[in-house]
Amino acid sequence: MSTAERRMPARRANRRAFATLKSIAGFVVVVATTYLGLLAVTFFIGRVVPIDPVLAIVGDRAPSHVVERVRQEMGFNLPYYQQFFLYVKGVLQGDFGTSVLTTNPVMTDIRRVFPATMELATVGTVIGAAFGIPLGVLAAVRRGSLADQIVRIVGLVGYSVPIFWLGLLALLVFYARLGWTSGPGRMDVVFEYTFTPITGFFLLDAILNRDWAAFRDIVSHIVLPGSLLGYFSLAYISRMTRSFMLNELSQEYIVAARAKGLSETRIIWGHALRNAAVPLVTVIALSYAGLLEGSVLTETVFAWPGLGLYITNSLQNADMNAVLGGTIVIGSVFIAINLLSDVLYRMLDPRTRTR
Amino acid sequence: MNETAMTRREWLLTDRPQSRLQARLGRAYVTWGRFAANRLAVIGMLIILGLIVLAIFAPLLAPYSPYVGDLAKSRLLPPDAAHWLGTDDQGRDILSRLIYGSRLTLQVVVLVAIIAAPLGLLVGTVAGYAGGWVDAVLMRITDIFLAFPKLVLALAFVAALGPGIGNAIIAIAITSWPPYARIARAETLTVRNSDYISAVRLMGASPWRIVLRHIMPLCISSLIVRVTLDMAGIILTAAGLGFLGLGAQPPLPEWGAMIASGRRFILDQWWVAAMPGFAILIVSLGFNLLGDGLRDALDPRGSSQ
Amino acid sequence: MSTLLDVKDLRVSFPTRTGVVEAVRGVSFTLGRERLGIVGESGSGKSQTGRAIMGLTPEHGRISAEKLEFNGIDLTRASKAERRALRGKRIAMILQDPKYSLNPVMSIGRQIIETLRTHEPVGRAEARRRALDMLAAVQIRDPERVFGLYPHEVSGGMGQRAMIAMMLVAGPELLIADEPTSALDVTVQLDVLGILHRLVADRGMGLIFISHDLRLVSSFCDRVIVMYAGRIVEELPASRLSEAEHPYTRGLLNCMPKIGVDRHPLPVLDRRPEWAL
Ligand SMILES: Nc1ncnc2c1ncn2[C@@H]1O[C@H](COP(=O)(O)OP(=O)(O)O)[C@@H](O)[C@H]1O
Ligand SMILES: [Mg+2]
């Protein structure tokens, strides 16, 4: 096989290029169909619901000719497939309709609140990975030991505890009773007039502004919800790290690395973890996506002005445009993260690279 | 071999079972041995059995009514001898509400499992057995659902259908089936071309019969493990929906909704919100421990033990 | 001939749920700067013997020996760090299948350099040069190119050459080759054996060559040890293999096909419980 390949370099190069093209085309098809599927579901939820969308806009008491006019204006008299086409077109242009609650275009609202959610999820994932990976490695290396058991229990509890409840208890203990952290919200009202958001990520903005008082305040606000999300991420990451590491440590190349005289530290962190990192990237990406989703509950508890709180507030007011807009945005980020993790996987694993 | 001289254990563990039943019982015995050796798994099983007992005998076990409290005398009482877990703002005994709430929890997990698992099983086995474009289309749909944010989608569904425990169950089930389809498909692919299935095919069995009678049963054990492991997630999602006011409606003693109503008193009467949370934690921990144990016992290769 | 390795009554056992598995049960031999073959069927304890000498017995394994001496160093007394310093530097090991024994996410060049820099304080350029020299020494025609390749990008024969380069780059005195050609195509087996032979001879190393293939061992080694169920059942010079006395060795010899001889019925390897005693 290898000699045959050496004889036909041109054809091999062709085949490689074709394979690359095919995998890119595959990517595009996957992303496009997934996105269309997402829109089909939100369209279905938005249009086939018991609440008449027109009545939701004009109110129940509007005279029937007004209802009819709005129905035509909004295209609700068209067949469903045409409506879906218009819907997809609108969404692709960033048009999610208008929020009944805020009277803004939903897209404008989401742009305003989304950075808060991203910031929280990022802090959570960083905490989760920073603690979860070393704990998972420790558990795998000391398999069966007390440390392993403790990591396992900590992880299992993380999988089993209702996040909103733990958030309430955390607020009660660390904010109300001990006073170690700030309470709900993203920052103190005092700073709201002096603080100028640049990126929307307040931690970053405070650094850019060199506003250290605000920075301290933001940290003391984010530390509770961030650690909470971090704990959930840690539960997942440490468990997967352990299982990947056990798999890698049982491979022959680890024996070879020992036979070379490498230190255990180098074998564990430089060889085994480097290999485990390939699937771990996917895990971390999925955990980040999970935290974005978990924000719906966490933000409610911590009055964190992000997308999750926006969605729940809209839910309570039957503001379907806002709910579905938020759903589409989170869904899109999910798809993007999946895609990104695929790309990262390919970068980390030389076996998937075509040369 | 002399049957009478065998102990029951030997009969179960024999290399040469005399009947299909004996072989099955023998396998079950070995699996049970592996499971029982795992202390945490047994604890998990006991928790779930406890939940079932609570749900069945709720009227006998609950000391007070879950719906009617003494507003005048027993409002927001801290835990004491009369009310072990305290009372809520309506003067209702929290323990009694939790005991009745176990019925709702059980209802949610059972119904979601009954809807989602067969759906996933059907999609996965058909896709795996049929192959070709049927497989491609079904798996694309599965992957699309898998790429969705489950909780947010369930929220949107419930928002559209209207709040209530029935709609919450439907919404969770709709978002839960894809992993089962994946597992069932993977299992189907491993047996599809086995001699055993070929033999059945040669005997003239129809594709549907093969899928229903021969392939689906083979997928059951890995599916059970996965469903058990998912139960905790289902409970948490249901509680989350309840907490947001989208699941079971008051005065139903649903645990998530109980946390939501206790939230107002968290500063001074912490137990109102804390107790239902412990209940959720214990039950979903039970399912996780049980699921882990089942996985290790049924699939000793794949376990990370 | 000076003694490189002296093994006396080496035992390796593994406690398992169903009882203690005794993998090696009192193996003794000495080795100079020569080529010693260890043969035996699968599971006879060859690999565990080699790994015990390397200090790579799995963690839950128990190991004991009356004597385990390398160049006068008492390995049973040596600390973990001392043994680690020996590995790769003075005693090296080649594993069976390069597909699994090379780190898949590290380029071949880096894996060779890693051995070198673990044991010698060499600079980057120097390390690279020596790695390239080593690749040339295992008869890789285009060392520069192979240096940057990842293990999955090379064939099995090329991978095993890289493995040899990685293990010999620091200049060990003793090499343990555990079935180094069993996973390779028959056509490249001889190439790799030839390379191994040359390097061992040129550098004056001691070699323990582990294989289940008696003929291969007899043609490649000076002396042969035959193992069965964790024990040595026979030890003899390779040239006098046909004079083997033990029925197990004779059985192994009998199983090898010969041209022009009727093979009906096919001989079956005889195993008697009393040989394991
Ligand atoms: N990690 C281990 N745990 C338990 N038993 C083992 C382990 N490694 C090897 N053994 C047992 O030790 C015996 C010898 O193994 P090995 O030295 O690998 O044989 P060989 O290399 O001759 O094929 C085998 O019976 C094997 O089952
Ligand atoms: Mg071996």
UniProtKB/TrEMBL annotation, chain A:
Keyword Transport: yes
Domain of life: Bacteria
Protein keywords: Cell membrane, Membrane, Transmembrane, Transmembrane helix, Transport
Transmembrane domains' residue ranges: 21-45, 120-141, 153-176, 218-237, 276-302, 322-345
Family: Belongs to the binding-protein-dependent transport system permease family.
Compartments, record wording: Cell membrane
GO-annotated molecular function: dipeptide transmembrane transporter activity
Any Gene Ontology CC annotation: plasma membrane
PANTHER family with a match to the protein in the record: D,D-DIPEPTIDE TRANSPORT SYSTEM PERMEASE PROTEIN DDPB-RELATED, DIPEPTIDE TRANSPORT SYSTEM PERMEASE PROTEIN DPPB-RELATED
CDD domains named in the record: TM_PBP2
Gene3D superfamilies xref list: MetI-like
Organism: Shinella granuli
ABC transmembrane type-1 domain boundaries: 114-345
Lipid bilayer topology: Multi-pass membrane protein
Predominant localisation class: membrane
Protein name as annotated: Peptide/nickel transport system permease protein
UniProtKB/TrEMBL annotation, chain B:
Gene Ontology terms: biological process: peptide transport; protein transport; transmembrane transport
Keyword terms, alphabetized: Cell membrane, Membrane, Peptide transport, Protein transport, Transmembrane, Transmembrane helix, Transport
Membrane topology: Multi-pass membrane protein
One GO location term (cellular component): plasma membrane
Top-level taxonomic group: Bacteria
Keyword Transport: yes
Signal peptide as annotated in the record: none
Sequence ranges assigned to domain ABC transmembrane type-1 in this UniProt record: 102-291
Gene3D superfamilies: MetI-like (1.10.3720.10)
Compartments, as annotated in UniProt: Cell membrane
TM region(s), chain numbering: 40-62, 104-130, 151-176, 224-249, 269-291
Pfam families: BPD_transp_1, OppC_N
Key word Transmembrane helix present: yes
Entries under CDD domains matching the protein: TM_PBP2
Family to which the UniProt record says this protein belongs: Belongs to the binding-protein-dependent transport system permease family. OppBC subfamily.
PANTHER family named among the record's database cross-references: D,D-DIPEPTIDE TRANSPORT SYSTEM PERMEASE PROTEIN DDPC-RELATED (PTHR43386:SF1), OLIGOPEPTIDE TRANSPORT SYSTEM PERMEASE PROTEIN APPC (PTHR43386)
Record protein name field: Peptide/nickel transport system permease protein
Organism: Shinella granuli
Lineage of the species this protein comes from: Bacteria, Pseudomonadati, Pseudomonadota, Alphaproteobacteria, Hyphomicrobiales
UniProtKB/TrEMBL annotation, chain C:
Keywords tagged on the record: ATP-binding, Cell membrane, Membrane, Nucleotide-binding, Transport
GO biological process: transmembrane transport
Alphabetized InterPro entries for the sequence: AAA+_ATPase, ABC_Ni/Peptide_Import, ABC_transporter-like_ATP-bd, P-loop_NTPase
Domain ABC transporter: 5-254
Single GO cellular component term: plasma membrane
Record SMART domains: AAA
Taxonomy, superkingdom: Bacteria
Keyword Cell inner membrane among UniProt keywords: no
CDD domains documented for this protein: ABC_NikE_OppD_transporters (cd03257)
Membrane topology of the entry: Peripheral membrane protein
A Pfam family of this chain: ABC_tran
Any one GO molecular function term: ATP hydrolysis activity
Locations listed in the record: Cell inner membrane
Similarity section: Belongs to the ABC transporter superfamily.
Protein name: Peptide/nickel transport system ATP-binding protein
